[in-house]
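Memo to structure team: turn this sequence into C-alpha cells by end of day. - J.P.
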Amino acid sequence: QVRLDESGGGSVQAGGSLRLSCVASGVTGSNDCMAWFRQYPGKERERVANIYSGSDNGNYLDSVKGRFSISRDNAKTTVFLQMNSMKTEDTATYYCALKSGDCSSSSRTYIYWGQGTQVAVSS
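Reply from structure team:
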C-alpha cells in the first residue's frame, strides 16, 4: 500500500523560505511522477510542481517559476519542494501526490495523495 508522508509546512514572512518533504513508501513501480499541489479554500487543487523519476528537471506553475524548486533523492522515494521568496499568495494547503508513468498537471490523474500540510505566508 502506497503511503505519502509530508512534512515541513508552517508559517513564514513574505520573502522567506520553507522546504517541504514527502516520503513515499510502498511504491513498487520504477517509473512514476511525484508532484506538489496546493489548494486554496473553495478552490480546486493546482499543480505547483512535478518531477518524473527519470529526470532531474521539474515542471512548474508559472507563478512559482524561479522561486520554487522540486527535487527527488537518489532513491527516488522522497520529493522536496524548496520554496524561496515566498509571497502571501503562496498561503495554501500543500499536498504531495504520486502517479505511475509520465507527469501530468491534472490532479485527476494522481492516485496517491498525502494528508496535506499547511503553509502560511504573512506580509
